[in-house]
Amino acid sequence: MTAESAMLVPLLLVAAFVYGSAGFGGGTAYVALFALFALPQAVSAPLALVLNILVAGVTAFRTRHALRAGLLVPLLAGSVPGAALGGMSALEPTLFHVGTALAFGVAAILLVHDSPHAGPLPARLLTRRTGWLLGPPIGSMIGALAGLIGIGGGIFLGPLLHFSGRVPGPAIPALTSSFIVANSACGLLARGATLGLAPATPWLPVIPLVAAAGFLGSRAGNLNVPVQTLRKLTAAILTAAGVRLLWMAGSAWAA
Q1: 167 near 68, Cβ under 8 Å?
Q2: How far apart are the C-alpha atoms of 139 and 1, rounded to whole Å?
């Protein structure tokens, strides 16, 4: 790991803490940071997925009692095949940069936006029939996008569940974190089987540190930490990375 790459570590820890506090894995932030520091995609993509699995896995374990399997299974029925197809696809670099930059922009907005439906809404819970009508198509779209970018897709699913007003508040972190773990694992396997994985040995010591930061983030409510300020910082990182990617795409087109 170079000195420049070592500067990434504290930023990765902040990202894991922030996303862990919201029930996410942090994939968008990891990919954004790796893009800012120009890490090769063959290294950054699988590393981001591994970190995503660990951080989201912490939240999935801590919130397992609130998981609504009847809502999760229809979403995964669409997202897992979508994540596999996305993970096996190698976009032309310019298209990848533009698509990822747009995803970062959406993620940055969602990260700092407070949902009007954050509270428990047990009386308005989605029915099993509605879940199977909406879950697979929504899951497939999010899964395909997540697989292409190298994330889990929770940053898109979580706000969607909030804004729907049809899912109890405590169930949302459980759903999004489990969704992230499944899609990230599927995308990682698909990417490894088709595109190959570059060794990331220098980053191995960082992995448990990021997992620990995600665990602390999941307990941020008990630590009296100004999470909203950190979320704004992470949104700024996503925006900066998106601008960098768009600049790279524009330079490629102009060449």
Answers
A1: yes
A2: 36
The Cα 210–Cα 25 span in angstroms is 10
> Which token pair is 84?
């596999």
Q: At what angle do helices 128-149 and 171-194 cross, to 10 degrees?
A: 40
Enter the tokens of residue 151: 């994330």
Longest dimension (CA), the chain: 57
Question: Average pLDDT by consecutive 10-residue portion of the chain (255 residues)?
Answer: 73 88 84 83 84 92 87 92 84 77 81 55 54 88 88 85 76 90 91 65 84 86 64 80 83 72
Position 188, amino acid: L
d(CA 148, CA 19): 20
Predicted TM-score (pTM) of this structure: 0.82
CB 203 within 8 A of CB 47: yes
Per the CB < 8 A criterion, the answer to whether 51 and 210 are in contact is yes
